[in-house]
Specification:
With about 150 residues, the protein is α+β, with helices and mostly antiparallel strands. The radius of gyration is 18 Å and the shape is elongated. The chain has one domain: SecB-like (Bacterial Protein-export protein SecB), CATH 3.10.420. It is about 30% helix and about 35% strand. It has a four-stranded antiparallel β-sheet, covered by helices on one side. A hairpin with a 7-residue loop joins strand 3 and strand 4. The relative contact order is 0.20.
């Protein structure tokens, strides 16, 4: 098979902030990295000077922020830039899907790989962030926007 380029291309990825620490005490006997609760927040930015076919996503992923389980506590802030094909209609569903779903999913995957590498040399081994239900994440984001519209 010969793969075709997608209408969205990643042009930049950067780790803006990262920290990882251990959360254990003398009573800790077992650590389940799968039990680490996650929080994901992100913003999508467009720049009028560049036009509607280039955008940036900045995402913060927090793991075990409230230290509810033994294991790792981490914060990772990453950013990425993307370029869309100008063949996409700005008001079309494909355009919206590439911006809000594909770009976000790509950045989550980049963060997953970075966290796995970062934690590989820590005492509990590599943390492999679970796959994110993108449909649910998009639904939560939509719900947050509706609440903000009502309040604002």
């Amino acid at each position: 098979m010969i793969p075709q380029n997608a209408p969205i291309q990643q042009t930049q990825f950067a780790v803006l902030q990262s920290s990882i620490a251990l959360n254990v005490n003398k009573k800790t006997k077992q650590v389940s990295l799968a039990a680490i609760p996650l929080e994901i927040e992100y913003d999508i930015y467009f720049n009028d000077e560049i036009g509607p076919y280039a955008f940036r996503i900045v995402m913060t992923i927090k793991g075990n922020a409230k230290k509810t389980v033994p294991g790792y506590v981490f914060t990772l802030k990453v950013g990425s830039e993307y370029k869309l094909s100008e063949d996409l209609a700005i008001d079309g569903d494909d355009y919206k899907m590439y911006v809000s779903n594909t770009g976000v999913a790509c950045l989550i995957n980049e963060a997953r790989v970075y966290l796995q590498s970062l934690s590989a040399f820590f005492p509990f081994g590599a943390y492999i962030m679970p796959m994110v239900d993108m449909r649910d994440l998009m639904s939560q984001r939509s719900d947050e926007a509706k609440v903000a519209d009502i309040q604002g």
